[in-house]
Amino acid sequence: MEAGDLPEFAMYMPGMGGNCRIGIMINGKSKWITEAAHIKTMYRPGSMIYEISDALLNKGMLTITILALDDSDGMIIQTKSANTPPGLSLVIAYGGATGKKFSRDGDIGADPESSFYLQPAYCKDNQYQLQKNSFRLYYGFTKPLSEEDRYEIQHGKKQFDTAAKDKPKLISGLFPEQAVLRIADANQQQNPIILTGSDAHSKTPLVTASVKVSPNSVYYWLIESQDKKRKYSETAALFTRAETDRKK
Fold it and tell me: What is the pTM for the complete model shown?
């Protein structure tokens, strides 16, 4: 897990395991929270906390806490809204897993910061399976995929030999039960509204998940390097466990 002064996160497996961006949308306006008017960043060993305020949030605040999972390679994000305006939506965008190792093996202080961005070029061989509030991302294919392969992966019909040396790598995500998931075009990241309305058949795909946020609510967003078939009802306890583990 890679995190810095701004609330945008990357997975390093080792090798680039993707990037996570968070945005807000309301009344036809939107922005990535990295562009918010005020961001207060708090560092704790094994965790980052961000307090976000902006005109789009009116007088409300969005608090983002990210932790490394205690039982697998991955991260769990808690989003907490306080007095946010009605009609607000929260959007998460994830993608760009390549498995590529950087020059200093993922040292965010040594490798260029741009190495960890959600770059369209990183998304080219990413293949997704979407379920109601979860996804599987396959990447790192050793040979070009046929259209039949792509169709079978996207529709859950493709089976991989888990013992094969040339099997693709896997990342899974679990989001709030009411989240709306869709594929979008990584070349259209100007703002969350443009991205969520972009071409789902892009050759540079990423996954988005959007949730209507009530004025005072808490949601959890989990991304990890395997599919443990978790349930969303488990995420609050997973977050608490990760926080307990962080303090050890």
Answer: 0.89
